[in-house]
Design a protein that fits this description.
It is built from seven helices and five strands, in the order αβααβββαβααα. By secondary structure, the chain is an alpha+beta fold.
Length: 201
């Protein structure tokens, strides 16, 4: 994941989203944050996350009421050479309405995702070691917009194929599957016999 470009907050038409006291910093030096072992947490209105909002099944009023929770924690550890390695962990959590790909109705999807970012000064090459690492390298030479970082992680955490565990309305295929497994299949000749009129030859 590369450092996201700074993006101005966007409010969708018909919604008002005043800044909250637990707002995510729009410019944060992640290395300094990790070196001081700081932590932050809060919540953000989905209305402030236009790219995320575009992927959801909700109108403007619903989006205005939706909030997601986040926490950011900085830590240090020693690498094999004894040098300090700065890390930040970002967790995002919320209930987001998406379109069920089975019945095409709104489906609440529980999101609870965490990523650990290994802070580096240069973008790493995507070699085998990098791809297999449980952490993501993140270029942190410049201050980052934490709100965009939160939005990026929420989008990555969305299910590729959202579905209800059980759709609220039965589908035609579901109705067919409700026939008892031991019920005998009706013979096509019996169907034809039932269609014959009395006295027909």
């Amino acid at each position: 994941m590369s450092a996201p470009r700074r993006r101005a907050a966007v409010t969708l038409p018909g919604m008002q989203t005043p800044p909250s006291e637990d707002a995510a910093p729009r410019r944060l030096n992640l290395k300094e944050f990790a070196q001081r072992r700081r932590s932050l947490q809060g919540s953000v209105a989905v209305a402030e996350l236009p790219r995320l909002a575009a992927a959801l099944h909700a109108d403007a009023q619903q989006l205005g009421r939706l909030r997601v929770h986040w926490s950011l924690r900085g830590t240090l550890r020693s690498d094999p050479a004894g040098a300090e390695q700065a890390l930040v962990s970002l967790r995002v959590k919320g209930e987001l309405p998406m379109t069920c790909q089975r019945c095409l109705q709104p489906s609440e999807q529980a999101i609870d995702d965490e990523v650990t970012l290994r802070l580096v000064d240069e973008e790493p090459e995507l070699g085998t070691e990098e791809l297999e690492s449980p952490e993501e390298s993140f270029c942190a030479r410049h201050p980052v917009d934490v709100l965009e970082l939160i939005e990026d992680q929420l989008i990555l955490a969305l299910p590729l194929v959202p579905m209800h565990a059980r759709c609220p309305q039965p589908l035609p295929a579901d109705e067919a599957s409700r026939r008892p497994a031991d019920a005998p299949a009706q013979s096509p000749f019996a169907v034809l016999a039932g269609l014959r009129k009395p006295g027909a030859h």
